[in-house]
Design brief:
Strand order of the largest sheet: 4-3-5-6-7-8-9-10
Oligomer: single chain
CATH class of the largest domain: Alpha Beta
CATH superfamily of the largest domain: Fructose-1,6-Bisphosphatase, subunit A, domain 1
CATH topology of the largest domain: Fructose-1,6-Bisphosphatase, Chain A, domain 1
Helix content: 25-40%
Radius of gyration: 20 Å
Bound molecules: 6-O-phosphono-alpha-D-fructofuranose
Number of helices: 8
Largest sheet: 8 strands, mixed
Number of domains: 2
Order of helices and strands: HHEEHEEEEEEEEEHEHEHEEHH
Length: 342
């Protein structure tokens, strides 16, 4: 095996990609790596420690809070606050923006939005879960970060990534110069470059959707599911249905193998289920940098300007050809608003 390159070495090496960079982003990404290692340790022994199960609380999303959710949230907030490179943090677990008020951080130029532990309903059944993060330059001029710092379109992201706590723990991120994956080697406590320059196949053979919601899907989505199930040798159909129910795990599999993940509007989630700011946008940045596509069905996800911190958005993300097929079928079979209003 060739010379191992650690996340730290890689980040510093790539620092040159950034004009005027004085190492702040380098430090920020390293801070995230540290928190990921701490969360990895707890996730991997959750069954032993008393951090499985629910806290008895319900979060702002109305979801039962898992002890590991809270633990992960605290670790990432602590690592980012101590690091001094971000002036505010937005988290799925917190209704409001968390301002980092220490003397160093209020002059920091970055803000970080994160889902500290996505898919946490899978923790108790030992299914892969993940952390998703998105980094912006602040738009506010000084002082503590503000809500407006987070309501930027995804095209303004400086960096985005995820950590997947699975059969191994990996950190995958982009700073706009491609996508690179690092696997944690617990024996040395370092993330090591294992997946350089990740690219998603233009056409995949996997579709990932919760078909339990079929009756409530828009007609274009129903047509796409039937398209995937048709026999057609030329396009390798029927495709395989794979749905883990943990967005980071489904996304990561599709990034490596090719495929498309769909979370359309449903009766339970009339605006979609995934959150624009700290789930859809970071995953969209990664997939575009890997040659794929991310859409809300009619628009490029990263061009949607968020109007609120926790707003939800339909998400169709993965291999370019498959996302474009979904957009084509949605356009062809969408009910014009006027007609739908009758
Ligand atoms: P459903 C996990 O709760 C999550 O937010 C994503 O990680 C996952 O893709 C989705 O919800 C699963 O939702 O409605 O199919 O169970």
């Amino acid at each position: 095996m060739g010379q191992v390159k650690t996340l730290g070495e890689f980040i510093v090496e790539k620092q040159a990609d950034f004009q005027y960079s004085k190492g702040e982003l380098t430090r920020l990404l390293s801070d995230i790596g540290i928190a990921a290692k701490i969360v990895h340790r707890e996730v991997n022994k959750a069954g032993l420690a008393d951090i499985l199960g629910e806290t008895g609380d319900v979060n702002i999303q109305g979801e039962n809070v898992k002890k590991l959710d809270i633990y992960a949230n605290k670790q990432f907030i602590a690592a980012l606050s101590v690091g001094g490179e971000c002036c505010a943090i937005a988290s799925e677990e917190n209704e409001e923006v968390i301002t980092v008020d220490n003397s160093v951080s209020t002059s920091a130029k970055y803000v970080v939005a994160l889902d500290p532990l996505d898919g946490s309903s899978n923790i108790d059944v030992n299914v892969s879960i993940g952390t998703i993060f998105s980094i912006y330059r602040r738009t506010s001029l000084s002082g503590p970060g503000t809500l407006e710092d987070f309501l930027q379109p995804g095209t303004e992201q400086v960096a985005a990534g995820y950590v997947i706590y699975g059969s191994s723990t990996m950190m995958v991120y982009t700073t706009g110069k491609g996508v690179n994956g690092f696997t944690l080697d617990p024996s040395i406590g370092e993330f090591c470059l294992s997946h350089p320059n990740m690219q998603i196949p233009k056409q995949g053979k996997i579709y990932s959707i919760n078909e339990g919601n079929y009756v409530h899907f828009p007609d274009g989505v129903k047509k796409f599911i039937k398209y995937c199930q048709e026999e057609d040798a030329a396009t390798g159909r029927p495709f395989s249905s794979r749905y883990i129910g943990s967005a980071v795990a489904d996304f990561h599999r599709n990034l490596i193998k090719g495929g498309v993940f769909l979370y359309p509007t449903t009766s339970a989630s009339p605006k979609g289920k995934l959150r624009l700011v700290y789930e859809c946008n970071p995953l969209a940045f990664i997939i575009e940098q890997a040659g794929g596509k991310a859409s809300n069905g009619s628009k490029r996800i990263m061009e949607v300007t968020p109007t609120s911190l926790h707003q939800r958005m339909p998400l169709f993300i993965g291999s370019r050809d498959m996302v474009e097929k979904i957009e084509e079928l949605l356009a062809k079979h969408s009910i014009p608003a006027a007609k739908a209003a009758k």
